[in-house]
Amino acid sequence: MKEVVLFLYENPMGYLATVERGDPRVRPWGFMYEEGGKFYFCTNNTKEAYQQLTQTPFVEFSSVDQKMSWVRLRGKVTFTEDKKVKEKILEGNALVKSIYLTPDNPIFKAFFIEHGTAAIADFSGQPPKTFTF
To answer: pTM for this one?
Structure first.
């Protein structure tokens, strides 16, 4: 699992797939951090993505590196209002901090994926390495 976490820290930008009225919806997204087997992300409660995440809380996040290896995380989303989580997100991402400014911003929402699956794959022909978390 350490390999997945390292990959995501090195390649935090990827794509998040949600469900919108039964159809997949994919958009660019940033991984924030991992702690205790939870993979943290954030959003804004005025966005369509937030509504999709609250209505159908199952996602897949994928990121790719320059060698065309990729990671996929799949699992259930849980939102948290934990101020320490939001502070850590803001401290670790200047863009997010410039948007939300403080952990108390009412539109700033943090969420994590836990109890899911992860895979690392490439075009080598070898089967993906799979993990549960």
So the answer is: 0.95
Helices (H), the chain: 2-10, 48-55, 83-92, 94-100
**To 5 degrees, how large is the angle CA 130–CA 59–CA 53?**
160
Each of the 133 residues of the chain gets a pLDDT tens digit; together they read 999 999 999 999 999 999 999 999 999 999 999 999 999 999 999 999 999 999 999 999 999 999 999 999 999 999 999 999 999 999 999 999 999 999 999 999 999 999 999 999 999 999 999 999 9
φ, ψ of residue 111 to 5 degrees: the values are -145, 165
